[in-house]
Amino acid sequence: MAGSSLSQRREYRAMEECPRKRYVRYNKSIGQGTTKKVYMGFDKVDGIEIAWSKTQLTNSSNQIYKNLLAEASLLESLDHENVIKCYHSWYDDSTKIFHMITELCTSGDLRKYTNKHNLVGNTAIKNWSRQILSALNYFHDRSIPIVHRDVKIENIFIDGNLGTVKLGDYGFARKIKPGRSLTRCVGTPETMAPEILEAEYNEKADIFSFGMTLVQIVTKEKMYSECNNDKELVFGMIRRGEMPAALNNAVDSEIRQFIDKCLRPKSERPAAIDLLNDPFLVNDVPEISTAGISAASIQTLRESVRHQVARLLRKEPDKEEFDSTTDNFPASRPSLERQREMEREGETFGSQKGTSETGSPSRTHETSTDT
């Protein structure tokens, strides 16, 4: 017992403070990627736990730096119950570390959560799907849509006590001009839409990735495992429109039909709003025996589900105008000259509303310029 108490004291030892002296980073690590480490921390003002991520940059990390700036700038404009919030971010030029303070989802990402809990039923999957699609609809239904470009099970976080899921990791998210396409090949091969490899895609690519994420949730399998980690074989299957073998293990007919809608060719693929109104999500039923449950009670449950969907859809679309001079950033983004000045002064690039990123599988590198 004494050893356990000592270990806990070490994990919750305050290691550093943010420049504002509001947030404290603990010694407890909760995630790690190639260049990023995520720690638990504490907000001394609101008295809540937070996630503190540190991304180590090098002289050759220019693209990563640009992605982090883009992410922090974009996050200032986001405010949705199913989107991870970012409270503060800054760059320390002396250590070449980019810091981001974000909302903490206590149960981690859905990969870890579903591996821990083996009894996830259809009702829970439907509930999570509504919330993920609500976040995607929030991005896609804006006057200037946002494409996430890396929807996957590791980028969906959950508060297990409430059943609330939140979409996170917006390092690849970009705004897109109405009627235009993005061209950079970015994302994670496991959930990547075929049109991304064709270098011409829009927000519908996120719907394909959502469908593949559902396969990950339902089967708990690695997509394209039959390719034995050979990325060229994976990319070949994606280009040819061949589905991973794991899809065959999504045996529930209702879920499989819903997934298949998400994986249609991009011209036939439904929008997030259409999927939210799909009978699979709107007409929910109990998974337990209905013996002894009155018809009125079952009807009340169904009405509750319909109300949940209606509430998720009652989000005001974004009203901002597109700024052609900054393209991927909000119009309020500081100039590069001001950014450099802010770096020297230790100020922030984005201080409100946003997302976090924990350790996740490797992504592809960006290969061309968005248009």
General description of the model:
This protein is an alpha+beta fold and 371 residues long. The protein folds into two domains: 2-105 and 331-345, Phosphorylase Kinase, domain 1 (2-Layer Sandwich); 110-313, Transferase(Phosphotransferase) domain 1 (Transferase(Phosphotransferase), domain 1, Orthogonal Bundle), CATH 1.10.510.10. Helix content is 34%, strand content 15%. The chain has twelve helices and ten strands. It has a six-stranded antiparallel sheet, with helices on one face. It comes from Chenopodium quinoa (Quinoa). Residues 24-281 form the Protein kinase domain. Its EC number is 2.7.11.1.
**Strand proportion:** 15-25%
What global shape is seen? globular
C-alpha end-to-end distance: 59 Å
Characterize the biggest β-sheet: 6 strands, antiparallel
The whole-angstrom Rg is 21 Å
Unreliable parts:
288-295, 316-369
Strand order of the largest sheet: 1-2-3-4-6-5
Number of helices: 12
Derived structural class: alpha+beta
CATH A-level architecture of the largest domain: Orthogonal Bundle
CATH superfamily of the largest domain: Transferase(Phosphotransferase) domain 1
Organism: Chenopodium quinoa (Quinoa)
Biased composition (Polar residues): 349-362
Keywords: Kinase, Serine/threonine-protein kinase, Transferase
Domain Protein kinase: 24-281
